[in-house]
Write a structure and sequence with these properties.
Structural class: mainly alpha
Strand content: under 5%
Radius of gyration: 29 Å
Number of strands: 5
Oligomer: single chain
């Protein structure tokens, strides 16, 4: 009886599942193909059969274990959903992302970030060596990453950094596989896997089907690639090669080619080990995949694996089935809601549909693109707006983040002054020493991690063609916002560790009398007295007289990760960034590349930050603690944010050529409220749009699609109407205004660019330029009590000429 017949018989008699049988058959065919290269047909078949038999035995044992783990996971998930004090929907959401009701318990989003940091530590040398700089990766870095790939394929390159980075990549990948397997995921028994495959739909569409097929067929002929036929689970025979390549091209160009992390599916293209496989992967990936961004592809895959591990550990190995069942329970609860309850504004943040979308964000399904051409066009518009609108975002971020960080510190029993001293220390210490301390505390540099898989603070805002995304990301980095955010994250986390070390001498009961907010932090995140005793039992880490809790001294990995996750969740109140929940809200359940999907993404551009403020500080103020404490905290929140907004407005005024505003009118403080905290982007648009771009604030807030339509109308239909009415056209002036509107200048260059370039161009094309400049000065004086220290149209600041 053949191996295939034996396996089929085991399935028919119920001894193994069809999934295990398919894995064993796939392994058998792959092994036979590999063994046939070095031994005769009979020996190859025997060796492959033995490998399949061992896999069957292992898989059968693993299946029983995995089935038990799935049952346990479902029981825990069901209990969590049913026992949440705010209902089943809140219970589902608390498993997926940070609980806005702060009822405690681990969630996928936070756990994924903790695991990602652990995996990133394995490749910290690669992160330091290859993370892009201000203008992206250098040619030397790109060459280094190519050597990293070669080393992973087993090629000796003589590049010590690449060799170490490749070892780190293999270690990270092994740890990820070990963890997800331990969580109950039934992975294939054997997989000749080295690096992920990613084939870019837009890139592939730029080449003909014939060229694509010819390139891959050439690599197959060289022996660098094995072409697998998923219909047979074996290498494609010559008479089916054309069909398999046709199908691969079709799958990629319709956007259905990327396997998930730990995918059990056999890929169509299997790259051989050694130099041939490495060079084939590099050639094909550069042309049809990630281009020169192989480093981003590798780190992005690690991030996907971290999320998948978190899903398996927090929800269950078959998390899709558990989430579907939990959503059914949530649907049953929602069926009993009254009409008034359905109108509750909080349902914008928490409902069955939001839970489903949040799960899609965490699994990556929300990133699907239906129409790449439409997604590229509207995504490009959004990237242009990020570049032109956020060049001065740091001016709002510094006072705004300072306030939210101080409030978060105080709420957790930490002196806000400690944060200030930490910032001063970080600025003074600088570079390598600071990063080394962060790494010792298991705090891999956030900036390097963010650059590896997209800058978190503006994830989803910058999109579209690669050059426009790069421009948007450069604007964020070049103004200092990425460095500021990285520093504030690091300082808050390190000072939190220091505060824990300072109180390590107290038991949890004693801590309630010494620092009640810190004890409440432990309670809020379900860290028991026994857990706290384990956490504080290790020796602290001392650096230059400062003491920090050494997380490496916590022997229990789950406890260590629970503590790190708790600190990350409190950090979410310090540095506001949209999480999976907010991203689910902002997309409205629509798909990128569809008309309505792009309209929704356009309309919600920059609005995720205000929603993040609602989901963090405002929810905490509304729901946590006794009423008198909420009133006190709410007053402090409003007061300090008003002051932060006022500071941002005055700083922007000076930076952009004006004197500070008069502060003795209510309008100033209303705009300060709009400018403060995460609403700072709104303040930027409202305070600057009419003066600099000539576009109304409503148009700017409506999103780039509406704004672009207004620009086109001003340059076309309005000019035609003037011609038909016999008036002079203003095409030249409008063209200059449009160019100014999309200028990606930064806060420290924008004023000079305005005065020396755009104002001078306006004098050449706008007959009414003198009156236009005078109107701007009069409006500033009339509306805000301001004058200009560098007036519109002047080539030099006043007092310098």
């Amino acid at each position: 009886m053949s191996v295939v017949d034996c396996i089929d018989k085991l399935v028919k008699t119920g001894q193994i599942t069809r999934q295990i049988a398919d894995e064993a058959l796939g392994l058998y065919e792959r092994s036979r193909g590999e063994f046939s290269r070095s031994m005769g047909p009979a020996s190859a078949e025997a060796a492959a059969g033995l490998a399949a038999a061992r896999a069957l035995e292992s898989s059968a044992k693993r299946l029983k274990n995995d089935t038990a783990k799935q049952a346990i996971a479902w029981a825990k998930a069901e209990e969590r959903v049913l026992s949440h004090p705010k209902g089943r929907v809140a219970g589902v959401m608390s498993m997926l992302t940070r609980d806005i009701w702060e009822a405690g318990g681990e969630n996928v989003a936070t756990k994924g970030e903790v695991i990602w940091a652990q995996l990133a530590r394995k490749v910290d040398q690669a992160l330091e060596a290859y993370s892009p700089g201000l203008l992206g990766q250098s040619r030397q870095q790109i060459a280094g990453v190519r050597n990293l790939v070669r080393e992973v394929f087993g090629v000796e390159t003589g590049d010590a950094t690449a060799k170490a980075a490749a070892a780190g990549w293999k270690a990270a990948e092994k740890e990820a596989v070990d963890r997800v397997t331990a969580a109950g995921r039934n992975l294939p028994a054997s997989e000749d896997w080295r690096v992920p495959q990613f084939w870019d739909t837009l890139r592939v569409r730029t080449f003909t089907r014939e060229e694509f097929k010819a390139d891959f067929a050439a690599e197959v002929d060289r022996g660098a690639v094995t072409l697998w036929d998923r219909d047979t689970g074996a290498p494609a025979k010559m008479d089916r090669r054309d069909f398999v390549l046709d199908r691969a091209y079709r799958d990629i160009t319709v956007g259905d080619s990327s396997a998930t992390a730990f995918s059990p599916e056999q890929r169509t293209f299997q790259f051989s080990g050694g130099a041939d496989g490495a060079e084939a992967w590099l050639r094909l990936s550069e042309k049809y995949g990630a281009g020169e961004n192989a480093f981003g592809l590798l780190m992005g895959h690690l991030h996907k694996m971290a999320n998948e591990i978190a899903l398996a550990e927090v929800v269950g190995p078959n998390h899709g089935a558990i989430v579907r069942a939990a959503l059914t329970m949530a649907k049953e609860e929602e069926a009993g809601l009254s009409r008034l309850q359905r109108l509750n504004p909080l349902r914008m943040l928490e409902s069955r549909s939001i839970a489903e979308r949040t799960y899609d964000v965490l699994t990556g399904r929300a990133n699907a693109v239906d129409g790449p051409l439409m997604a590229g066009f509207f995504g490009g518009l959004r990237s242009l707006n990020v570049s032109s609108k956020l060049g001065g975002a740091i001016v709002s971020a510094i006072p705004g983040d300072s306030v939210t960080t101080a409030l978060a510190a105080s709420y957790n029993g930490m002196d806000p002054g400690r944060i200030l001293s930490g910032v001063i220390r970080e600025i003074g210490r600088g570079g390598e020493e600071s990063r080394a301390l962060a790494a010792r505390l298991q705090l891999t540099a956030h900036a390097a991690m963010d650059s590896a898989h997209g800058f978190v603070r503006f994830a989803g805002e910058a999109s579209g063609p690669q050059i426009l995304r790069a421009m948007a990301n450069t604007v964020i980095r070049a103004q200092g916002l990425a460095a500021w955010t990285d520093m504030m994250k690091r300082v808050f986390t390190m000072e939190f560790m220091g505060n824990l070390a300072d109180h390590a001498g107290h038991s949890l009961d004693a801590l309630r009398g010494v620092n009640e907010p810190l004890a409440n932090f432990l309670d809020r995140h379900q860290i028991s007295a026994k857990d706290w005793d384990s956490i504080r039992s290790g020796a602290p880490l001392e650096v230059e007289g400062a003491r920090f809790l050494d997380s490496e001294g916590i022997a229990d990995r789950s406890l260590r990760e629970k503590l790190l996750g708790a600190i990350i969740e409190e950090r979410a109140f310090a540095i506001l960034e949209p999480d999976a929940r907010i991203r689910a809200v902002m997309t409205g359940g629509t798909t990128a590349g569809t008309f309505w999907g792009e309209m929704v993404r356009s309309a919600t551009l920059f609005k995720s930050f205000s929603m993040t403020m609602v989901a963090t500080h405002m929810m905490r103020l509304a729901t946590q603690g006794p009423i008198e404490k909420r009133i006190w905290n709410g007053t402090a929140f409003v007061l300090f944010n008003l002051l932060a907004g006022a500071a941002a407005i005055q700083a922007r005024a000076v930076i952009y050529g004006k004197t500070p505003e008069a502060m003795d009118n209510p309008g100033f403080w209303v705009r300060s409220g709009l400018q403060s905290g995460s609403l700072g982007v709104y303040g930027d648009l409202i305070n600057a749009s009419t003066s600099r771009t000539g576009r109304s604030p409503v148009s700017d807030l409506a999103g780039p699609a509406i704004g672009a339509a207004e620009d086109v109308a001003r340059l076309s239909s309005q000019q035609l109407r003037r011609l038909m009415e016999g008036d002079d056209t203003t095409f030249g002036a409008e063209l200059v205004r449009t160019a100014r509107r999309y200028d990606p200048s930064l806060w420290y260059t924008r004023l000079a660019v305005d005065r020396l370039l755009f104002d001078q161009l306006q004098t050449l094309v706008d007959p009414d330029y003198r009156a236009s400049f005078r109107r701007a000065e009069k409006a500033a004086q009339r509306d805000f009590g301001q004058s200009y220290w560098w007036a519109p149209g002047d080539a030099m600041p006043r007092g310098v000429r």
